[in-house]
Design a protein that fits this description.
The complex is a heterodimer.
Chain A: H1 22-27, E1 42-48, E2 54-60, H2 62-66, E3 70-75, E4 107-108, E5 114-120, H3 123-130, E6 134-139, H4 175-181, E7 184-192, E8 204-211, E9 214-219, H5 224-235, E10 242-245, H6 261-273, E11 277-280, E12 295-303, E13 309-320, H7 333-337, E14 342-351, H8 365-383, H9 387-393, E15 398-399, E16 404-405, H10 411-422, E17 434-436, E18 439-451, E19 457-463, E20 469-473, H11 482-494, E21 501-505, H12 521-546, E22 560-563, E23 566-569, E24 572-578, H13 579-586, E25 591-597, E26 610-622, E27 628-638, H14 645-664, E28 670-671, E29 676-677, E30 695-700, H15 719-722, H16 724-736, E31 742-743
Parallel strand pairs in A: 1-11, 7-31, 9-10, 13-14, 20-21, 27-30
Antiparallel strand pairs in A: 1-5, 2-4, 2-6, 3-5, 7-12, 8-9, 8-11, 12-13, 15-16, 17-18, 18-26, 19-20, 19-25, 22-23, 23-24, 26-27, 28-29
Chain B: E1 5-8, H1 12-21, E2 25-28, H2 34-39, E3 47-50, E4 60-62, E5 68-71, H3 76-80, H4 83-88, H5 90-97, H6 102-107, H7 110-115, H8 121-124, H9 166-172, E6 176-180, E7 185-189, H10 190-193, E8 212-218, E9 226-232, E10 243-252, E11 255-264, H11 274-279, H12 287-297, H13 309-326
Parallel strand pairs in B: 1-3, 2-3
Antiparallel strand pairs in B: 4-5, 5-8, 6-7, 6-8, 9-10, 10-11
């Protein structure tokens, strides 16, 4: 593999190393789940309900089955039996409720619900035969409109998912009274519509039927073990007989945190037909697997004369399905950032006849922080305080919502360095005061915050007699750079070059890794890799000591360093033993070790842990026509140690572009006449194109954090997108004097 | 899509006889829309007739009346970047380059551009009623999400818009469409080519069964001195116009000798209003006069729940674009508003 990187034994952590798999990706040799082949592979195409609610009265597959190349059609009437209990369908990211079970019965709960699977010798045959199904429905009244259903609002049920997504903290102080007495009060309603993940790669599962109840599955997922668990539980297979592999993932953004229904369908067909089967979704079907829920927010912030927040009320109402109580953390952020004493936070849901929402990049954070930071901007204007100054006035070293100090928080540096880089001091604060020709110019800023989480993960390190090391973990790389980063961590821990490390991953047979989401992968798997490498070093050292006449025989582990294929005494580098020699003595057998890593349960909860950002944006708004251009944006990020500045910058840039998209472009239109998404394709679901993206800059401020984990990393997956929508909204206000509370902001709202 | 046979027509007569004999035989040139229509089951084809090999209709050359003849099979990209078009008809070049994406323009042909179907969401979703797709089934857009829909020329049966950018410029240029068919060869003025929906929205244009476009003629007058194309949309590229405007002006002694203004993205065909253009004759090229013209062009406009803004937007866009036409260098890539 041609890889033009300089490879030295200098520490690789902190180096902008290009993705190790980049060559495969740009040359098309990277294979995705829907690209693995097998002899006589069968292809499945899913048939979707065209009604929103009701029953299937009859489903006639006769014509479809007669078509040449069609092997079988599965419906609720002839599907093989699968697990009965709800819990057997539950995955690592399942919200409280009843997981949707494909083909369970004739009940239709949402438009586009999968109701049949056509299996044929080619994908095209299956897709065509799917149109020949004769389906008669009995339609019932349905409701898909959040605004029209606020009478159904209720508190969400709690469940396992509440561990990572805790409900809002209990009220503190006396919000109502203090708010009423506040020097300045702001009372705002916000809303945004449905958004879909739209990864480039379609969901696909290729199931290789190996006989004797054994399956090898290539699945597009953010968790190989999550998919493995689901398949084993639902189809009554032994865990060891289900292998799930997902080496390349063409974007997922949260949509792969749950096993998607093509996996169920492909496994069901494979087991029933005893054949290799692939099921791939098409683009329209990609809008039926979960979404960011449309959400309404109500905020009331009160502040004193100096701008200090003293009262916070934040309520969110999100959409969910009739069968699961999906929640995300929308309202908890304000008091994590701003230390008001009188706080009331509420999150409720409205069940509608739609599919369950699903975590989508910075779930809840990008929703809640939009409303919070736009409200902060309004307070700044009411008090005629610079918006950046207002953030500094309310700056807190503790998370007031939990009364814990932050493990680290360099947000102040983000504000100051970001402002400096952007040229915030050149801003005239008066709305409509800056212009160029026909364009009103606006500068806006906002804060970003996201959790710095860490959970349990495992990794294995194997050194072979040639001195090379393979690291294994079931973790996926959803395009974030995990492969490269884990290789760097292993190389530095072992004192080796990254060329001599192979990171094998995305296979459920490998040591345990949780789903890849929540910005916690590097912080979770990184330490496991580090532990495995430390353990490997320890084993090598022990063997080295035991060599007859070893120069290290009287030394301790802390006296030596591992570097360039040798174990040497720190204080006398000439005293060394080569790794190859150790292997000769050891009989040439590979040395293996598997290790876990998790936060210390006794201390981990004692501090608040978060990543932060400060975002500065310049927009131009055409004075007559309202058209909006984001001319430039600067994001300053504090996310602990940055393992790889190149892949980390890409994460932030991607988030910023998504933030521009959320602010100005993307929305899935649900037509409430039909309960159907009307723009379920990439031509009409607008995400930015190159021409929309102008000058973007990322800077990482120095942040040392020895509490979160030994590597000091916090994760950069979500933070990039969080602050952009409010910064753009605020910049548009500065440019035009118009405050828009709905996202996306279509330019006609500025006419 | 359904299973269909595929054949290459090597001459015009074959193409005409194949499509006039069977309404389910469809032509394919660039394929940038017909493939969508087949995949979405809007159209089913018995035979797909590839016309790319038909000789004589894939070049751009001067015609007998001092204008230009553009072959139906010339791609949008080759047209936009053709030296004569860039020099004498830069409005057409700008309008084409405001449409679709580079990849699509490289494939799409000029004939196909005129024949592309609406992008109405409901037209493309066979599970919703649509009079254009299935006459008599109803119009879902009137009560639905109609942000991208018409404010002019619509009817109770259809409020879809014709999505082309190129055609907005062709309308201003008074192009003539050359048509071959089973009975005759005929020429149709551009303004008579597309049609309003009335109660038969299934027909987008006046092309008869078996007929195909062979060329588009541009008269000599190209408005190469004072022209502009402006396109307002929800993202900077690869999206259809919410409102677009093509303007060509002819000035004499500082007064307007002739003005032509067409709107795109607001109606079932490029929208021109003769009285509004005549109003400008002999007048000064200034904002107040363009505002008065804009009022006249938008006369009778009717919006729906999600697209009422287009009425005001179109007026402002007309004014801006007329001002831009006075200084064509103020045009920007992507037909964005002037700085």
């Amino acid at each position: 593999m041609p890889n033009q990187q300089s490879m030295s034994n200098e520490p690789s952590i902190g180096q902008p190393i290009s993705r190790l798999e980049g060559y495969h990706k740009v040359t098309g040799t990277a294979k995705y789940a829907g690209e693995y082949n097998a002899p006589d592979l069968l292809y499945g195409y899913i048939v979707n309900s065209s009604i929103t609610k009701g029953k299937i009265k009859s489903i006639d597959t006769t014509e479809a089955k007669k078509m040449s190349g069609v092997v079988e059609v599965f419906t609720h009437e002839n599907r093989p039996s699968t697990a009965w209990f709800d819990f057997q369908y539950a995955d690592m990211d399942a919200p409280p409720g009843t997981v949707f079970k494909p083909l369970k019965d004739n009940d239709i709960q949402y438009n586009g619900q999968p109701i049949a699977l056509v299996i044929a010798e080619t994908f095209e045959m299956a897709r065509y035969a799917a149109t020949k199904m004769q389906i008669v429905y009995e339609e019932e009244e349905f409701e898909t409109d959040l605004n029209a259903s606020l009478d159904l609002v209720r508190k969400p049920k709690k469940g396992l998912a509440s561990l990572l997504k805790p409900p809002p903290p209990k009220p503190t102080g006396d919000f109502e009274k203090v708010y009423q007495d506040s020097f300045v009060r702001v009372d705002n309603h916000f809303s945004h519509g449905t958004e879909h993940h739209n990864p480039l790669e379609m969901y696909a599962s290729t199931v290789i039927y190996e006989g004797n109840g054994k399956l090898k599955i290539y699945d597009k997922t953010q968790g190989t073990i999550n998919s493995q668990l689901y398949v084993a539980n639902v189809f009554g297979l032994k865990m060891k007989n289900v292998q799930v592999i997902s080496p390349f993932v063409g974007g997922a953004f949260g949509s792969g945190l749950r096993p998607q229904h093509q996996l169920f369908m492909a496994v069901m067909a494979s087991l029933a037909l005893k054949r290799h089967v692939r099921v791939t979704l098409d683009r329209a079907q990609m809008y039926l697997i979960g979404h960011r829920p449309p959400t309404l927010q109500h905020l009331k912030f009160g502040a004193d004369q100096r701008g200090k927040l003293n009262a916070i009320y934040h309520k969110a109402i999100g959409e969910t399905s009739q069968f699961e109580d999906y929640v995300e953390i929308v309202v908890n952020w304000s008091n994590m950032l701003y230390p008001a004493e009188n706080v009331r936070l509420e999150h409720e849901i409205v069940p509608l006849d739609v599919y369950s929402p699903l975590d989508m990049r910075a779930p809840g954070g990008s929703t809640g922080m939009h409303a919070i930071e736009v409200t902060m901007d309004e307070i700044a204007y009411k008090l005629q305080i610079d918006p950046l100054e207002l953030r500094l006035i309310n700056y807190s070293e503790i998370d007031k919502s939990s009364d814990k100090t932050y493990s680290s928080k360099e947000l102040r540096s983000c504000y100051l360095q970001g402002a400096e880089k952007f040229g915030w001091d050149k801003r005239n604060p008066a709305p409509r005061s800056m212009r160029r020709g026909h364009k009103l110019v606006g500068y806006g800023m906002a804060t970003g915050i996201w959790d710095a989480n860490r959970i349990f993960g495992r990794a294995q390190a194997i050194m072979t007699p040639d001195g090379k090391v393979e690291i294994k973990s079931a973790v996926t790389d959803i395009g974030t750079g995990t492969l490269t980063i884990m290789t760097q961590i292993a190389a530095d821990t072992l004192g080796m070059s990254i060329e001599d490390i192979t990171f094998s991953y995305a296979d459920s047979k490998m040591p345990f890794a949780p789903i890849q989401g929540g910005s916690f992968t590097t912080a979770t798997i990184g330490p496991a890799v580090q532990n495995a490498c430390h353990a490997l070093n320890k084993k090598l050292f022990k063997l080295a000591k035991n060599i007859k006449g070893s120069v290290l025989s009287s030394s301790k582990l802390q006296d030596v360093i591992f570097k360039d294929g040798f174990i040497s005494l720190k204080n006398n580098l000439d005293q060394k033993i080569s790794i190859l020699e150790i292997f000769q003595e050891h009989g040439g057998e590979a040395i293996k070790t598997t290790n876990s890593a998790m936060p210390n349960p006794l201390t981990y909860g004692k501090k608040a842990k978060a990543v932060h950002s400060a975002v500065f944006v310049e927009v131009e708004v055409d004075e007559e026509l309202g058209t909006i251009e984001v001319k430039r944006a600067v994001t300053a990020v504090a996310a602990g140690k940055i393992i790889n500045p190149k892949t980390a910058e890409s994460q932030i840039l991607g988030g910023m572009i998504w933030g521009i998209s959320k602010a100005l472009h993307e929305e899935t239109i649900l037509d409430h006449q039909f309960g159907r998404y009307m723009n379920a394709n990439l031509a009409e679901y607008h995400i930015p194109v190159h021409a929309d993206i102008q000058d973007l800059e990322v800077l990482f401020v120095d942040e040392e954090d020895h509490f979160v984990n030994d590597l000091g990393v916090k994760g950069v997956g979500e933070i990039g997108g969080v602050g952009i929508p409010p910064a753009i909204t605020n910049a548009i206000f500065h440019a035009t004097g118009r405050r828009i509370y709905e996202l996306p902001i279509h330019f006609d709202k500025l006419l | 899509m359904n299973n269909f046979s595929f054949t290459k027509a090597l001459d015009m007569d074959t193409a005409i006889s194949l499509t006039s004999g069977n309404d389910h035989n469809k032509l394919i040139a660039g394929g940038t829309n017909i493939i969508d229509l087949l995949k979405y089951f809007i159209t089913e084809a018995d035979t797909l007739v590839d016309i790319n090999s038909i000789p004589g209709i894939s070049k751009i050359a001067e015609n007998e009346t001092g204008g230009i003849r553009i072959g139906a099979l010339v791609t949008n990209a080759d047209t936009a970047y053709h030296a004569i078009i860039e020099e004498k008809y830069p409005l057409l070049s700008k309008a084409i380059l405001a449409g679709a994406s580079a990849q699509i323009r490289n494939m799409a042909t000029n004939g196909g551009n005129l024949l592309q179907r609406t992008r109405c969401y409901y037209f493309y979703d066979i599970h919703t009623p649509c009079n254009k797709r299935e006459p008599g089934s109803g119009c879902s857009a009137i009560q639905g999400y109609n942000r991208i829909h018409a404010i002019l020329g619509h009817s109770e049966s259809c409020i879809a818009v014709f999505p082309s950018d190129m055609c907005v410029a062709l309308s201003v240029l008074d192009a003539v469409v050359h048509i071959s068919g089973p009975e005759e060869e005929r020429n149709v003025a551009f303004s008579d080519f597309h049609r309003l929906p009335g109660d038969t929205p299934e027909s987008d244009n006046n092309l008869k069964r078996g007929e195909l476009i062979t060329a588009i003629d541009l008269p000599e007058k190209g408005f190469s001195k004072y022209y502009s194309y402006l396109k307002l949309r929800d993202r900077a590229s690869y999206s259809f116009a919410l409102v677009s405007v093509a303007t060509g002006l002819d000035l004499e002694n500082g007064l307007i000798k002739e003005a032509r203004i067409a709107l795109g993205g607001v109606s079932p065909k490029p929208w021109r209003v003769k009285e509004a253009e005549d109003f400008l004759k002999g007048k000064e090229p200034k904002i107040a006069n363009f505002e008065a013209t804009a009022q006249m062009i938008l006369k009778g406009a009717k919006g729906f729940e999600h697209n009422r803004f287009k009425i005001e937007l179109a007026k402002k866009a007309i004014v801006r674009n007329c001002m831009m036409a006075l200084d064509p260098t103020s045009q920007r890539a992507g037909a964005k508003p002037s700085l």
